[in-house]
Design brief:
- By secondary structure, the protein is α+β, with helices and mostly antiparallel strands.
- The chain has 3 domains: about 1-45 and about 190-240, no CATH class; about 50-115; about 130-185, no CATH class.
- About 30% of the residues lie in helices and about 25% in strands.
- The chain has helices at about 5-15, 25-45, 195-205, 210-235; strands spanning about 5, 55-65, 65-70, 75-80, 95, 95-100, 100-105, 110-115, 125, 140-145, 160-165, 185, 190.
- The strands form 3 sheets. It has a 7-stranded antiparallel sheet with strand order 5-4-8-2-3-7-6, with no helix packed on it.
- A hairpin with a 2-residue loop joins strand 2 and strand 3.
- Helix 1 (about 5-15) packs across helix 3 (about 195-205), helix 2 packs across helix 3 and helix 3 packs antiparallel against helix 4 (about 210-235).
- It is globular, with a radius of gyration of 21 Å.
- The two termini are about 40 Å apart.
Length: about 250
């Protein structure tokens, strides 16, 4: 998946909102982060984006009279059940019921292929600090270009700010660098960048009660989202095959 540095979204969002990126305060950073996190989930779940799909072969188990799929919900949101690998052969979509994270089938088959969508990441981290020992699942914002937690561009260094989650099972200890060891970078699809920026702008204008400006920014958001869809559906040619079922 082609990804974008969150710093690109942060600084472009501040500029379009009329806020100088060279004066990025923790409060302004938190505002963009929270608005971007909400918009990211909206965009993420608005379409069956190719880059976010995962196809997993799963076994079918008999539980009482029910045929259920052994599926790990951590994989993501279930979209489709296939009778064979749709990336390797012509496959047929099968009916299913999803109840309390359990996939129930009405047909007998040893294995099925589950098409799911990865879960949207939540952005909640603050600027990385050298004197803090981070606990499991803690999230930080770190600029790998300047090797610091700076919220503003550092002269002479590339700006490569992103969110990282600490995946270790014990405290990290002070000075733990997010690009080394038990840290995982949160990847934001580059395809979503423009829509995120305009979405943050629209939400910011709405928060300041500038309703006409918010409406115009919302229109820019819609255009950016349409452009992302165009890249996926027309330029990349990513379409779901039509399945005809006999009853």
């Amino acid at each position: 998946m082609r990804s974008v540095n969150f710093s690109d979204i942060l600084h472009a969002s501040l500029q379009i909102c009329g806020l100088d990126r060279s004066l990025t305060t923790p409060e302004r950073f938190a505002m963009v982060r929270d608005l971007a996190s909400m918009r990211l989930r909206t965009i993420w779940e608005s379409n069956e984006w190719t880059d976010l799909k995962v196809i997993t072969k799963c076994s079918v188990n008999l539980v009482g009279e029910r045929r259920v799929v052994a599926f790990d919900p951590k994989i993501g949101q279930v979209l489709t059940i296939w009778d064979r690998d749709p990336l390797a052969r012509s496959a047929t979509q099968k009916d299913f019921d999803l109840i309390d994270n359990v996939i129930n089938l009405r047909f007998q088959q040893a294995d099925v292929w589950v098409e799911s969508r990865k879960e949207s990441p939540r952005l909640y981290g603050d600027s990385w600090k050298t004197d803090v020992s981070y606990r499991p699942n803690a999230q930080v914002y770190y600029d790998s270009g300047s090797e610091s937690g700076s919220l503003i561009p550092v002269s002479g260094y590339p700006v490569q700010g992103d969110f990282y989650v600490y995946t270790g099972t014990t405290p990290s200890g002070t000075g733990s660098i997010p690009t080394i060891g038990s840290w995982e970078r949160i990847q934001i699809p580059k395809l979503f960048a423009n829509a995120l920026i305009h979405g943050v702008h629209a939400d910011f204008r709405r928060s300041t009660n500038e309703l006409e400006a918010a409406q115009a920014a919302e229109a820019d958001y819609a255009k950016a989202l349409d452009s992302a869809l165009d890249q996926t559906l027309r330029q990349q040619g990513s379409t779901r095959p039509i399945n005809f079922r006999n009853y």
